Amino acid sequence: xxxxxxxxxxxxxxPSTKSVRxxxxxxxxxxxxxxxxxxxxxxxxxxxxxxxxxxxxxxxWDEAGYxxxxxxxxxxxxxxxxxxxxxxxxxxLPSLLLASWWHLSGYVISGxxxxxxxxxALALLGLYKLAKSLTDTTVAVAxxxxxxxxxxxxxxxxxxHADIFAAAFTLWxxxxxxxxxxxxxxxxxxxxxxxxxxxxxxxxxxxAIVTPAALALWEAILWLRNRDKAxxxxxxxxxxxRRTHLGWIAALLAPFIPLVAWYAFHYHNTxxxxxxxxxxxxxxxxNMDGHRIALGLWHRLLHLTTHMNMFVPVACTLAVLFxxxxxxxxxLIRKPxxxxxxxxxxxxxxxxxxxxGALLTRYLLPMYxxxxxxxxxxxxxxxxxxxxxxxxxxxxxxxxxxxNPPYAFAPEDNLTYRDMIVLHQQAIHLIEQKYPQxxxxxxxxxxxxxxxxxxxxxxxxxxxxxxxxxxxxxxxQAAADPGAYDTALIFSTKWxxxxxxxxxxxxxxxxxxxxxxxxxDLLPAEAAAxxxxxxxxxxxxxxxxxxxxxxxxxxxxxxxx
Length: 561
Known about the structure:
Rossmann fold; 5 strands; globular; about 5% strand
C-alpha cells in the first residue's frame, strides 16, 4: 500500500514522497487520451440508436408501479412524497430528474427513455474512467463494450428505475476513488468529488449506501494498520498515508448526511421512516431468516457469476488462470485496488442477499462492470491473443439479449420485458375498444396500466379488481365473488421455461415459493374454467402470454323511484 508507484511507461517515475496511496495504474501518457467530454456524445448516440425501437414502449413494472407515478406527482404538484401511489421512502432524486426533464421535453414516454439513455451513457463514461485508472485503455474499451451489451445492463438502459441513476453516480464515485494522484490537492479534490457522487447515488436509491459504507470501513482498517507502523522512522509517508485514509473515511461517510436528512423529512411528513410497514416487512424485516439468507447468498452468487451468460467470461477467466505468466510481468490491476474491488463486491453480495423481497438483478447493476474488469485484465495478462475470448463473451451477451436462459428470471433482465409490454398493449387495447365500461379482474402491474392513462396503455381509466397474482389460490378467491368483475386480464407474471423444456431451477421451486414469491400462474383455459368465463383473446411471445376473459353475468334490473 505504501510502496513507490510506477507508471505504465518505464521511462516515467513518480517520486516516492508522492506515492502515498495509488490504487490504480495510469493507462496512457497525459495528452494522449481523448477528453471524456468528447466521448460522451459518442456513447449517448450509440446507446440511443441501439435502443431506438424501445423508446416509445409504455412504462413497465416498477416504472409503472412507483417511479413514474412518484415523478408524475412531483411534476404536477411539486410534492416529494407521492400521493397517487404508496410511498415507500425511496429517495427523491429520480423524481426530481424526471420531472425537470419533462419540463424540457414534455411528458412523453420517448423523452423519459431518452433521459435514461443519457444516464446510461454517463454511467459508461464513468466506467471508462474507472477502468482506465485501474488498468489501461485497451482493457477499458473491452470492459466498456461488454458492459454495454450485457443483457441486464442493456435492458436497464431505457427503463426509468432508480437503479440506473444510482449506478451512474456510483461508478463516477468509484472512478474518483480509484483515481489516486500523488499531489495532495488533487487527492482532496477527488475526495470531494467522490463524496458528491456517492451522495447523489444514495439520493437516487437508498441501498447505494452499501458501496461507500464498505469502502469507509476498508479505509478505517487501512488507517489502523498504518497507525501500527507510525513508529517506523525510515518511512516518512506513514503520517501522510494516515491523513489520506482519514480524508477518504470522511468523504465516504458524507453520503449518510443527505440520506438521514431525507428519512427525517419523510418521517416528518408520513410518520414512517423507511416507508409503509408492508414495504419494510417485505424488503427487510421478513428476510431475517437463516435459511432465506443462505439461499439469497447462493442466488446472488449465481447472479454475479453466471446469470445471462456471465458464466462465459467468468469460466474463461478461471481457465486462463492455469496458464503461467512471466513472474516479472506486473498485474494490470494493483493488489491494493484488487482488495478494494473485493470489498465492494463482497459487501454488495451480502447486502443484496438480505435486502429486497425480490432478488432483482438490477440491484447489482454497478457490480457487473467490476466482474468484467477483473475478467478482461486477467485475459490480457495471461494470454497474448486474448481477443477471441472477448469476442466469445460478446457473442454470449448479445445472444442473451434475445434468447432466454433455461430457468425462471425477471423479464427486465433482457428484452423479454418488451414482449410483455407488447402483449399488455394488445390486451388493454382490446378491452378499451370493446369493453370500455368493464370492471377488470387483474394483477399488478396491469392494475396500474389500466387505471393510469399517463402510463401509455390506455386513453381512459378502466376500473380494476386487484389480485396478487394468478396462482390457483388467488383465482379461487376471485371465483368466490363473481359479481365484482365482468372481465379479466391475466398474464404471465414471471418467465419460466415451458414444462417440456430444460429447467435448471425446477429443483428449488419449493424454497423459492416460500422465500421469494415464486408461483405458477394458471393458464388462460384453466383460469377461465375456474372463473366460469370464456377466453375472448390470447397471445404468446417467447414464453410470455396474456389473455382477456369475459364472464356473461345475469343481472336483476329494477326501477328506482
